[in-house]
Amino acid sequence: MASRLNPYLSFRDDARQAMEFYKDVFGGTLTMNTFGEFGSPEGADADKIMHSQLEADNGFTLMAADTPAGMEHNPGTNISVSLSGDDAEDLRGYWEKLSDGGTVTVPFEKQMWGDEFGACVDKFGIPWMVNVVQSG
Predict the structure, then answer these.
(1) Which residues are in the Glyoxalase/fosfomycin resistance/dioxygenase domain (predicted)?
(2) Would you call 1 exposed, middle or buried from its count of C-beta atoms within 10 A (0-12, 13-18, 19+)?
């Protein structure tokens, strides 16, 4: 898999409905995982979307999630740029450069879903997410 760059949208409680709408708009394959599937089965956010991905037939990729309770959600500023793929060396290099001089919001490390992931806001105020997919 080559590395990819795509938008990542954040919603308060309606990521499922939004992504189903975007699937109707663009077509393609939509996958969704809830917080309950990744370690919070009893919590208030259990049925909310932790990660969703739409792969449209034309090559568009759109990712989205619900913002967990207790985290700030600001409509209008609810988009990040996502870098993901399996080229760990390149992606780690991008992470180092993007986070340098910025603010790390999630340290780049192995996460509960098995991938290496980090989030930061670069020195220009742009939020980034970097995910290194771990091969099975």
Answers:
(1) 4-129
(2) exposed
pTM value is 0.72
Residue 106 confidence (pLDDT) above 90: yes
In angstroms, the CA 124 to CA 100 distance is 11
How, if at all, do strands 4-11 and 61-66 pair?
parallel
Contact between 78 and 127 under an 8 Å Cβ cutoff? The reply is no
Question: What residue has token string 């995982």?
Answer: 33
- 63 Cβ contact partners less than 8 Å away, ≥ 6 residues apart: 6, 7, 8, 9, 51, 52, 53, 54, 82
Residue 82, both tokens: 């996502």
pLDDT in tens, 3-45: 888 999 999 999 999 999 899 988 999 999 999 998 767 788 9
Q: Which two tokens stand for residue 38?
A: 């990744």
Q: Which residue type is seen at 86? A: D
